[in-house]
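Appendix B. Raw example, untouched.
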Amino acid sequence: MSLAGHSAGGVWRCAPGPTKRADSPEKSASQHRRALCREHLGARSRTSVGPADSRGQLTILDYRAPASFGPPRHLHHREDEVLELIEGQAVVWTPNLSFVLAAGDLVLLPKLGPHTWRAYGPKGIRFTATFTPSGFERFFQDIERRRLLATDVAELRAVAADVGMDILGPPLSDEEVRQIRAGFHSASISARPYSIPLSGSTRTRPQAP
């Protein structure tokens, strides 16, 4: 099983930055960190608020992903996650409920709850991801530091485990996205290989065509 997210839109590239940090007393470590763009498995993120800013209480990422990108099904053991969609369209999957997000929508994904999401439509998406407490940002940092690719399955699982995340199953397929957009969380969405039992099907919020 590949741990890569689906991506029909290619890899987003971070804009090149300076070759070395400018020695300016006005530029704080926090400001420098915010200028960094991290690229990982086809998506990219910037840290807006980090553990140093919040005393470890939360991390906020500005996250961008190309069209049709989505991570594997997973859960966090330590952090609650809040996604606020800023641009584009996405579907969100959980075992008991699946639904569509439009720009301006916000969803809470509590720790220990399996979930995933996937962009749909011709354009990529942008959202803020808030994790509380801080700590999960190390996942992206470690991927970048170790230069891991989507094919490095064992290493990616180890990095995920280090930050308290379990990889549970594959990303959403095209058919699963279609079913969620149609307003149903059908048995076929839950029938794919998975490491924990899933609840029965549940009708979800209908989506206008």
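End of appendix B.
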